[in-house]
Design goal:
This protein has seven helices and four strands. The chain is α+β, with helices and mostly antiparallel strands. Strand 1, helix 5 and strand 2 form a beta-alpha-beta unit. 32% of the residues are buried. Pfam families: DUF6891.
Length: 204
């Protein structure tokens, strides 16, 4: 019995919706060639129990939709500005990654883990996670950016917050320099927000 035959109709519908969301986010944020991304998504879908022909239909449908939207909404696409800001931060010695982890906690953990593996350890990091990206799939929504220091010089919470807030200020400067209009109240406990973030990049 194949994995798909073991799923109920409701479970299969949920799996298809999940694969569709994963496909859109991957084609939005993955820098690898679209055919490589598509092959990985199809394999993932099949392994999770999606029939192969249905997985191909979902993945290629998402790829084609993103391509159409990239042409239709090219004038309002803001993804290039954000990725440019991230590239600038990377050049300044910070870790800046799109679609890192599924949730906030996982993203923070992965950012620190990645930073500590690097030969030249970044001072801090910024990212958005998969659930953040999913909110942008069907049109402009607020994008939330998380940030923090990799290693703290301070031992107390107030000092650690100040170090995080210094990272946040650097991120805000890079975003504004890229032509974005981010919002943030300046505290370590809150995210940086980019309102009405329009992400219409074409699959690579």
């Amino acid at each position: 019995m194949s994995p798909s035959e073991q799923l109920s109709a409701e479970e299969l519908a949920d799996l298809i919706d999940w694969l569709r969301q994963q496909s859109h986010v991957a084609f939005m944020t993955d820098a690898r060639p679209a055919d490589v991304v598509a092959a990985g998504l199809i394999q993932l879908g099949v392994e999770e129990g999606t029939p192969a022909d249905r997985a191909e239909q979902i993945v290629f449908g998402a790829r084609d939709r993103r391509a159409r939207w990239s042409r239709r909404f090219a004038e309002i696409d803001m993804s290039g500005k954000l990725l440019g800001a991230f590239a600038s931060l990377e050049q300044q010695g910070y870790l800046a990654r799109p679609n890192l982890g599924y949730s906030s906690g996982e993203g923070h953990d992965l950012a620190v883990e990645l930073a500590r593996r690097m030969r030249e350890r970044p001072v801090g990091y910024v990212f958005f996670h998969t659930q953040d990206a999913q909110r942008l799939v069907n049109g402009p929504e607020t994008l939330y950016l998380r940030f923090g220091a990799v290693d703290y010089a301070s031992a107390d919470n107030a000092g650690k917050d100040a170090e995080d807030e210094a990272i946040g200020q650097v991120v805000m400067t890079a975003l504004r320099a890229a032509g974005l209009e981010p919002g943030w109240n300046g505290t370590a406990a809150t995210t940086i927000e980019i309102p009405d973030m329009a992400w219409y990049s074409a699959p690579r």
